[in-house]
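4.2 Preliminary Data

To establish feasibility before requesting continued support, the project team ran the inverse folding procedure on a target of 401 residues. The structure was first converted into the token representation described in Section 3, and no sequence information of any kind was made available to the design step. The complete token record follows.
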């Protein structure tokens, strides 16, 4: 076992850290206050290679491993959640599924566009009346000559208004709704310009206000047969695979949020005085800071282990889900304590901890609620959930030339 990060990992940390410090930090307080998403951030991310990190060079990617993706997410969310969400969606929920489940044609068409930022990807699973319960979706795909006609509405979709390519899940056969089958759902790669695609923004979010979250509406959208991802009827498995990658980036991002809470609290506790001493001298403040550090270490070790399993192509649903559950729970606790350490100042946007507090809440909801993660853990423990042999995992790293 080797806990040492490699030169490659440290280079990715520096890249993401410098980007977040230079491009996100100066604007984030105002962008969050005004709920303003800055589209140019996507171009900036593309330019330095953040959008293509863990894809082979032949597709324009950076060729780095899945641990690097997690480390980049940690650095981005250290500054703001909205920046990390871009990698979660564009890489975790769009690019990596195409890389793993796509045909050669789909990979050579879409991956160079995604890694270069020529296209932004998004993931359309959740609907107004179906989030945790995936088979509750209503979107329909009717077979026609040469393809499918899609109709439906997707909701709470990160980057919906900014994306050009959507991975949409729809019913191709509603009769096949069997629990151990779910083979009536199919994934489709839908380009914005296919016709009948409209998107919009959701206003008034509690957190991640500098990020785009919205809806996708599909109105008689024709999708050619070659844009089925992973084969007809494999949509449930493709969606679960996507979430295995997205949850990993949420876990690593939430780890960065914990570190941000910790650093802000240590600094404040060493400067703010009460009863003639810095508040860091008070044991109840020390306890909060000690718990933040413990939360950070636990969360970081969990996501790094999941990343290591991804590199090796080892089934990691259980490890990823655990990392997501614990990191998001620890982020909520750390953000709450960080506000507490800052006292009344933590209750205002003069300090960033109130933003961390609002952002942390979202991570226990999106990409599988805390409750879903607990059910997944219990399912593995009680042996009614298991990874079937031959299940598709990420292509192992290092990628073959
Ligand atoms: N990878 C591949 N296949 C998987 C898999 C995985 N991670 N997990 C399950 N499967 C397979 C199973 O092996 C099984 O196939 P077999 O019968 O061939 O073995 C099949 O899929 C069905 O699996 P389950 O029986 O485990 O499914 P279930 O119905 O019991 O439970 C669930 C599924 C865990 C509750 C799941 O529905 C779930 O995770 N729900 C939460 C969904 C979610 O996270 N939604 C939020 C999306 S975020 C979003 O949309 C917004 C955005 O922009 C970010």
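Position-by-position output of the design step:
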């Amino acid at each position: 076992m080797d806990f040492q990060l490699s030169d490659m990992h440290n280079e990715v940390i520096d890249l993401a850290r410098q980007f977040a410090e230079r491009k996100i930090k100066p604007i984030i307080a105002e962008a969050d206050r005004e709920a303003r998403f800055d589209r140019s951030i996507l171009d900036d991310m593309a330019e330095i290679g953040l959008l293509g990190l863990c894809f082979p060079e032949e597709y324009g990617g950076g060729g780095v491993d899945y641990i690097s993706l997690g480390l980049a997410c940690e650095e981005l969310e250290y500054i703001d959640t909205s920046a990390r969400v871009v990698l979660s969606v564009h890489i975790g929920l769009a690019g990596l599924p195409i890389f793993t489940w796509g045909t050669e044609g789909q990979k050579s068409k879409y991956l160079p566009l995604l890694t270069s930022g020529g296209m932004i990807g998004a993931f359309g699973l959740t609907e107004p009346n179906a989030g945790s319960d995936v088979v509750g979706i209503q979107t329909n795909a009717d077979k026609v000559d040469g393809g499918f006609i899609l109709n439906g509405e997707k909701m709470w979709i990160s980057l919906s208004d900014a994306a050009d390519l959507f991975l949409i899940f729809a019913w191709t056969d509603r009769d096949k709704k069997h629990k151990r089958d779910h083979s009536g759902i199919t994934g489709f790669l839908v380009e914005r310009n296919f016709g009948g695609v409209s998107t919009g923004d959701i206003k008034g979010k509690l957190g991640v206000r500098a990020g785009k979250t919205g809806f996708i509406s599909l109105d008689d959208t024709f999708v050619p047969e070659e844009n089925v991802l992973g084969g007809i009827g494999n949509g449930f498995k493709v969606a679960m695979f996507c979430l295995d990658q997205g949850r990993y980036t949420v876990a690593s991002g939430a780890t960065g949020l914990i570190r941000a809470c910790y650093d802000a609290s240590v600094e404040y506790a060493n400067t703010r005085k009460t009863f003639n001493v810095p508040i860091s001298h008070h044991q109840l403040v020390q306890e909060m800071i000690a718990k933040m550090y413990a939360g950070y270490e636990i969360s970081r070790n969990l996501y790094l282990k999941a990343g290591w399993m991804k590199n090796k192509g080892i089934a990691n649903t259980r490890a990823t889900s655990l990392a997501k559950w614990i990191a998001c729970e620890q982020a909520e606790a750390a953000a709450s304590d960080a506000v507490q350490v800052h006292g009344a100042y933590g209750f205002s946007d003069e300090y960033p901890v109130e933003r961390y507090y609002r952002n942390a809440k979202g991570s226990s909801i999106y990409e599988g609620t805390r409750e879903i993660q607990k059910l997944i853990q219990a399912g593995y423990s009680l042996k009614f959930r298991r990874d079937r042999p031959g299940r598709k995992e990420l292509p192992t790293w290092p990628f073959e030339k």
